[in-house]
Every structure is written in C-alpha cells, then in structure tokens.
Amino acid sequence: MTQTHQDLAALFAAHKAAVPARRVSFDRHARLAALAKLRQAVLDRQDDIIAALAADFGKHPVEVRLTEILPILQDISHARRHLRRWMRPRRVLPTLMMIGTSARIEAQPRGVALIIAPWNFPFQLALGPLVSALAAGCSAIIKPSEMTPATSALIADMVADCFAPDLVAVVQGGVEASTQLLALPFDHIFFTGSPAVGKIVMAAAAKSLASVTLELGGKSPVIVGPDANIAKAAKWIAWGRFINAGQTCVAPDHVFVHASQRAALTDALQGRIAAMYGADPATSPALARIVDDRNFARVTGLIADAVKAGAKVVAGGQADMGARRLAPALLEQTAADMDVSREEIFGPVLPLIPYDDLDVVLERINAGPHPLALYVFGSKGLAGDVVARTTSGSVGVNLTVMPVIHGNLPFGGVGTSGMGAAHGQAGFAAFSHMRPVLRNRFLPMTLLFPPYTGRVKKLAKL
Ligand code: NAD
To answer: Is the ipTM of this complex over 0.95?
Structure first.
C-alpha cells in the first residue's frame, strides 16, 4: 500500500484535531478499555502472529510466544495494573519561598506520537511502545518495518480492527514513508532501530522540537571472570546470543573471558549449541533465519573477513545461503581492528576474547561507544567493579537479555545506544509531559512586587 504525502498529512491532521477532545475523553477508563482491546486482539490472533513471524524469518512458535507475544501481554497487564498509580497527580511539598502554595505534578499526554519500529522483533517493538502511548493517553501512528511484511500487514490489520484511525493508525512502507512521517510535527517520536537512523530521526525531530525516545543498538560485551560458574555462564550467553539467530539488540556481542576459563567456556558453549540446536544447527527449526540476503551476506562477510585477517572459527559457521540459515559460530583470535570487533554483529556469531587484566578490558569497553547492555559473570566483587567503572544502557549480572524483560526496570541506552527509556512506568513517562501545577493559597510574594519601597528593600534582604 502506498500512501501519498497528502494522505499522511491528512491522517496526521485528524490525529491532531482529536487531541483537545481526547484530553478529556481518553481518561483512565478509556485507556484501560483500549489496552484491554489490544490484549484481546493479541490473544485472538496468536496463530496469525506465529504464522507471520514464520513467514518473515522462520521463527520457532515457542520463540514467537516467548519473545513477541508474552512480552506484549505482560506489558499490557502491567500497565493496566499500575495505570491508576502512574496517572495519579503527585503532590510536592513547598520549598521555603513557596510556603502558601500547593503544588502537584500531573502526567499529561504529549499528544500525537510517531512510533517507528525495526524488523528484528517486529511485533513486540511496534506494539510495546503503543502500550505505553495508550497508557499515557497519546494517539499514535505506527510505522513498522518494511523488512517483515507479513508481520507489518498483520499489525495493520489488528490495529484497524481495534482502534479508530484517529487514535491508532499504521502506515506501512520503508524509508520513504518514514521520511514523510518524520517531516510532520509530531509531539513525540519513539524510534527503535540503528544508531545511524537514530541520528536522522533526531535531526528530523529537531525541526519541530518534538521530544524523542531513541532505542538504538551497539556492541554489548560480556565479561566472564576467573570465578564465574562456566556451565551457567555458557547457558545464558549461548541463549542470549543465538536466540532470534543473534538478531537481538541486547544480545551478547562478544565475550571477554578470563584466560584461565577460556578453554572451559569454549567447550561449554559448544555443548550448549549442540544441546539447543542439535548436531546440524543450520537445519534446526529452533534457529531463526537471517532476515534477508543483504544481512546474510553482511554476517557471513564479517566471519570471512575476520578469518582472512587471522581469526579462527572454532565451532559452527556452516551457511545455507538459500535458506538464509547460519550455524552459530564461535570465533577466536579476533583483533580489535577487525569489523567483527567494531560493528554490531547482529547475527549468530560470537567472538571469544581471552584476557588477563580486567583493566585492559574495561579500557577497551570505555574507549568504544556506550553499549546498550553489559553482562558480567562472576563474583559480586567483580560485578561491582565493572558496574562502577563502565557505563551502558543496562547491566545483567550472571544472566543475559533479561533486564529488557523486567517490567519494573526502565529499558534504554545511553549515548549512541539510545536516549530515554521504555517499558512500564518509564514508557508511560516517555509519552507524558510531567506538568507542574502550582496553586496560590496565601503566597506573600506580592509584598515584594514593585515599587521597591524601603519596606520591600528590607524584606528582600531576608
Ligand atoms: P533501521 O534503523 O535500519 O530501521 C528501523 C526503522 O527505521 C525501520 O522502520 C525503517 O523503515 C526506518 N528507516 C530506515 N532507514 C531510514 C531512514 N534513512 N530514514 C527514516 N527511517 C528509516 O534498523 P533495523 O535494521 O530495522 O534494526 C536493527 C537495529 O536496531 C540494530 O542496530 C539494533 O541493535 C537496533 N535495535 C534496538 C533495539 C532497542 O530496543 N534498543 C531493539 C531492536 C533493535
């Protein structure tokens, strides 16, 4: 479906026109009802969601349930359960100069939101921000990814079934549709995708000074300490890296392993890959496909270039180009100047980098762009040290990926990995303007207004 610029401008104008009425009518009950409708639609269309994700990139039904359906259902239940508290105006105490007033902070819907979603979790990352937008009382136009057409069409269908087009609408299309939407003066833009496009989004937002939430990516490192439980670490690292065939923003992107644990970790990871995907992982239905030929060539190219420059594939890497399936690969002897060490891999490839000195590892991490996630396996002391001496969007200790699933934790990046936060109350806040309302009860400030007589001068000295 192609929409002209005029169509999009008209859609946006309809959303804008509905804002004043919605400020009153889209109260807590209406928001709860909208969220309940969305929840029911997700429950009713589970088979369609599974089929769409299978068509788009061969995801296993269990993985679809775990990573696309359950997170949305959880987001909706969490928002419904806590909405009253999130919306409640927060009273604040007067400061000394403000005695004689009462003050509160009211969460006001920002207005009309634009949600731009990526392809890697195309259902969850389009509808998750919508849950927050609706909870906050905003209307939304969603631009899902053009690279997952079956899921994007399904989202459009579900949204049209659930909502009036001036409350939630879906615009399908690629860069062109995205660019046209970004030219409209939205009140808030919630973008999930690459840091490169994040910059384009922020520059576009600057034209109308729209607020932005940017959920971006980057290389998320893992540190495995000398005291780590290797069997447990391998379980979490292999799962986090290879779920969705490594096409996960918070996936462990490379592992710094203490030299004393290198051989044990390599063995344990190989064992986990075999346990999860069998003897021939490239044919396993549990392993998702690489989303398209371009990305397949990019990921296999990263391996080939690394090998040419001296790296070793110690396991996996078998590629079925026609099916776009790539057996989980473990790399060793990579160097810091290889592309595989510098670019976000976004595929089922895991470099293992032995270290002796933690200081060197932390220096390397701190010299690069701020990671979206950072994981540490080992003692409390090691984790505390790493947390204190680095920055990242989030930290996972003795686990991977899970911080993104925790409904009570804000999820977001820092610096090039993002700006602002999503999920739960943080997501509600992203789509809200926290508006102070200050009421005068008996504020004696008028005593200090001009003319500045001797009495005023005396008082102002206080
Ligand atoms: P992408 O930035 O290429 O595309 C994201 C969206 O932006 C798509 O809807 C696309 O149509 C649109 N877009 C692409 N180019 C554009 C342009 N020039 N102008 C305007 N819009 C444009 O990202 P992707 O390839 O879909 O996703 C992968 C990236 O997303 C990775 O970097 C990953 O780490 C990141 N990501 C981050 C999170 C998070 O929550 N932080 C989640 C998933 C993915």
So the answer is: yes
CA 202–ligand 1 middle distance (angstroms) = 13
- What b/e string do you get for 73-100 counting C-beta neighbours within 10 Å, with b at 16 or more? bbbbebbbebbeebbeeeeeeeeeeeee
Ligand 1: residue of 68, 179, 192, 411 to mutate (most ligand atoms within 8 A of CB) is 192
pLDDT of residue 416: 96
| Domains of the chain, CATH where assigned | 5-216+423-435 (3.40.605.10), 221-409 (3.40.309.10)
Tens of pLDDT, residues 104-154: 999 999 999 999 999 999 999 999 999 999 999 999 999 999 999 999 999
Question: What is the 145 CA–ligand 1 centroid distance (Å)?
Answer: 8
345-396 pLDDT, tens digit per residue, is 999 999 999 999 999 999 999 999 999 999 999 999 999 999 999 999 999 9
Q: In 3D, which of 212, 215, 197, 194 has the Cα closest to residue 394? A: 215
Hey, which residues are catalytic here?
A: 215, 249
Helix orientation angle between 70-87 and 124-136, rounded to the nearest 10 degrees: 20
Tell me how far the alpha carbon of residue 198 lies from the centroid of ligand 1, in angstroms: 8
